[in-house]
TrEMBL record:
Subcellular location(s) of the protein: Cell membrane
Lineage: Bacteria, Bacillati, Cyanobacteriota, Cyanophyceae, Pseudanabaenales
UniProt binding sites for Zn(2+): 179
Membership in a protein family: Belongs to the peptidase M50B family.
Protein name: Zinc metalloprotease
PANTHER family in the record: MEMBRANE-ASSOCIATED ZINC METALLOPROTEASE M50B (PTHR39188), STAGE IV SPORULATION PROTEIN FB (PTHR39188:SF3)
GO terms for biological process, alphabetical: proteolysis
Membrane topology: Multi-pass membrane protein
Length: 420
């Protein structure tokens, strides 16, 4: 739900529009131009475009209202991204309680309903009670008494009102990413006390509504091509956005469920700290593969003393290798960043990224080395939990590169979890 084309800013917050709007506005302009063809044959497409733009402005205003409420409820907004349907803001974190979720979600539909009332009022001021006759032929006949221009603006006002009314009602559908889905999430969260369960139910509801909307649009195509296409597009966006909520929700829950013990490996070398540097170089360093970058744990008298890096020995004159013991190069475990067995993997991701570490040592309750964790181990643990079926070669690549895949949004999501 990130990105978009920046068109300005509101209260210092960047305002962007999703690129899908160009396609949506084009379809709407052509479809709505039919209503103005008789009254203005030469400029019917222009009036269709005006109505479509008013539709965009309506959605934009409802999203802006939602974001202002978000700021009022303590959610920091980085950007406002006006999408066709669904989430409209880019924030650092989510709401921390069900009431904040509800307050933010209800603000958008309320604005739409107010705009609908303004549209109906404008139509009444232009044409009087006849604007609400509900008979298209009666409205078209206004041209003889009001003139074509006033009749056209009556139609535009009515469509503006109807569009906002429809959008306000649609927004209340209890399915993510609609505002009604967030209201449903807030209600389930309040009842169960579990945010993850609430999002899962609301997102599944969004996927079901998306499929049903696509099917309905397909059934409408023979009788109303543009109406059918509109519903198919709406269902497609609804299903995709609901899937995004579900993906992030499942990933967040996995990051909080998996701990260091579930993630760590024994992929390290245990060496005696009493041996000489020469023996260490001959038995270990020279025997490693060229591209290998192993982790060495020094121990003596049955206790793990610390870590040894292959780089540290390179700074020692080779003439001293025979006389110096490995213990002289040990970095004690208490002087490095370590984690415990029950620490959450979300915290581990944050520590790896903030300190730019290649790996983390996992310590047992007695202080010994229980295992090690690198970025590839984190991805493998998530793969096992979420059944991603990531190829082992790709995990090896992550280990070698020391970077999390950017498309997973893993680092960003872990930062958000740390703020909750």
């Amino acid at each position: 739900m990130r990105g978009g084309i920046r068109i300005g800013s509101i209260f210092g917050i960047p305002l962007c529009i999703d690129s899908s709007w160009f396609l949506v506005l084009g379809f709407l302009a052509v479809g709505l131009s039919v209503d103005y063809a008789k009254l203005s044959p030469s400029f019917s497409l222009g009036y269709g475009a005006i109505t479509a733009i008013l539709f965009f402005i309506s959605i934009a205003l409802s999203k802006v209202a939602r974001d202002l409420m978000s700021k009022a409820r303590g959610v920091e907004i980085n950007a406002i991204n006006i999408q066709f349907f669904g989430g409209g803001n880019t924030s650092d974190r989510e709401s921390k309680d069900p009431f904040s979720v509800f307050s933010i979600a209800i603000s958008g539909p309320l604005v739409s309903l107010v705009l609908s009332a303004i549209g109906f009022t404008s139509a009444w001021l232009i044409a009087g009670d006849i604007a609400f006759s509900g008979n298209p032929k009666t409205i078209d006949s206004l041209a003889t008494s009001l003139g074509n221009i006033r009749t056209i603006w009556t139609i535009i006002s009515l469509k503006f009102a109807q569009i906002n009314l429809i959008f306000g009602v649609l927004s209340l559908i209890p399915a993510l990413p609609f505002d009604g889905g967030h209201i449903l999430k807030a209600a389930i969260w309040k009842l169960t006390g579990d945010r993850f369960v609430a999002i899962r139910w609301a997102a599944r509801s969004g996927q079901v509504f998306g499929i049903l909307t696509v099917i309905l649009g397909g059934l409408m195509l023979p009788n109303s091509f543009f109406g059918g296409i509109f519903l198919i597009l709406m269902g497609w966006f609804l299903f995709g956005n609901a899937g995004s909520y579900l993906y992030i929700n499942n990933l967040q829950q996995a990051l909080l469920d998996i701990n260091a013990e579930d993630t760590m490996t024994r992929d390290f070398r245990l060496v005696d700290s009493e041996i000489s540097l020469r023996e260490f170089a001959d038995k270990f360093l020279l025997m490693e593969a060229k591209d290998a970058n192993p982790i060495y744990i020094a121990s003596s008298n049955g206790r793990d003393r610390g870590i040894i890096t292959s780089e540290s020995i390179r700074h020692i004159d080779s003439n001293e290798w025979q006389s110096r013991s490995l213990q002289s190069l040990v970095t004690p475990l208490d002087e490095i960043d370590t984690v415990e067995l029950k620490d959450k993997v979300s915290m581990i991701v944050n520590l790896l990224e903030q300190k730019q570490l290649r790996y983390l040592i996992v310590r047992s309750p007695v202080g010994s080395v229980a295992g090690v964790i690198d970025r590839g181990d984190v991805i493998k643990a998530l793969d096992n939990k979420l059944l991603w079926r990531i190829p082992s070669e790709y995990i090896k690549q992550i280990k070698a590169e020391g970077k999390f895949p950017s498309n997973l949004r893993l680092v960003e999501i872990c930062e958000q979890l740390a703020e909750k």
